[in-house]
Amino acid sequence: MINYVHHAGHTLTWEEHSTGTRSIIFIHGYSANRAIWSHELAYLSHLGRCVTLDLPGHYPAVMPPTCRALSQAEVLDLELRALEAIVGDQPCTLIGHSTGGLVALAAAARLPTQVERVVALAPVVWGPLTGALGFYQRLLPLPGGYMLYWLHYRLTQLSLRFIQYGIASAYSGNMRAYMENPVAAAAVRRWHPIYAHSQLRNLATLLLTLRTCDIRAEIGQIACPVLIIAGERDPVVPSLQAHWLAQHLPKAHLHILPGIGHLPQWEAAATVEGLLRGYVGDCRL
Q1: Which of 2, 55, 144, 245 has its CA 20 to 30 A from that of 83?
Q2: Residue 235 CB partners (closer than 8 Å, separation 6+)
Q3: Cis bond leading into 250, ω under 30°?
């Protein structure tokens, strides 16, 4: 069942998958949705109350119709309000990918009594992004830029094959290996029907937010353990951000995966599963 949090004209959405005394909250990245976590839920749900939380404007989450810009402060305010609605004053573990990693890290800095550990998968620490997403960030403000963005992304909504190819070329560290990866293929099949309903204007709005995002000033406030998993060949968020993060966190555990891109949980599924089982299971939830 989908749950809703309403604030400032936005509707945020989250779903509960299992029960337990503490919560494990999964936060996806830009243009993704709750369905990307099915593989991880299958092997972590016995450890506690597993919850998947959507980013603002990511279907079925809703942005106000007139919203054309979101600041980093507004995005974090929305997500942290949702987190507080989910856990109240109880402890939780946050698992965030990419933009979800940014949210998880900011939450650890701002909600120290609730967030007791973080897993940051290829986290965004500062913008702009690189590769194809960096190209779209530069394109969107230009005359006609949104129309080109819309055409490209609309094709990915209409065609499962096109989105599989698009993800392989824009996100992976090894395109051929990614295209043959059954974990990635299954995840995209689950994710795509929800993604097809997304309002592309909302996705573009968040992508522009990420162009100027920067949470480095908040990292010093994080006291809890943080597991950082990043790909050596990440074309979206260079691994130097993960290295910087590890150098500035007192309880960081850094794993840079050779040959892997921006989707370590799919590209190196067995390795990431082992790391998550050990890290999250170390404190039985």
Answers
A1: 245
A2: 130, 131, 132, 170, 171, 172, 173, 261, 262
A3: no
Residue 233 zone, left/alpha/beta (φ > 0; ψ -120 to 50; rest):
alpha
Please report the DSSP string for 103-120 in residue order: HHHHHHHH-TTTEEEEEE
Residue 76, H or E segment: helix 72-87
Residue (of 222, 270, 252, 209) closest to 77 by Cα position = 209
d(CA 188, CA 164): 7
In b/e form, how buried is each residue of 176-201, taking b as 16+ CB within 10 angstroms? ebbeebebbeebbeebbebbeebebe
For the chain, strand residue ranges (E) read 2-7, 10-16, 23-27, 49-53, 92-97, 115-121, 226-231, 252-257
pTM, two decimals, is: 0.97
Q: How far apart are CA 64 and CA 66, in angstroms?
A: 5
pLDDT in tens, 84-109: 999 999 999 999 999 999 999 999 99
| Rounded distance between C-alpha atoms, residue 138 and residue 108, angstroms | 30
pLDDT digits (tens, 9 = 90+) for 113-166: 999 999 999 999 999 999 999 999 999 999 999 999 999 999 999 999 999 999
Closest CA to 47 of 229, 266, 270, 282: 282
Distance, CA of 259 to CA of 170 (rounded, Å): 15
Output the six-digit token pair for 243. Answer: 């290295």
Cβ atoms 40, 95 nearer than 8 A: yes
**CA pair distance 179, 201, nearest whole angstrom:** 28
Q: How far apart are CA 128 and CA 12, in angstroms?
A: 25
Residues linked to residue 51 through DSSP beta bridges, in sequence order: 16, 25
Q: List strands edge to edge, sheet with 92-97.
A: 2-7, 10-16, 49-53, 23-27, 92-97, 115-121, 226-231, 252-257
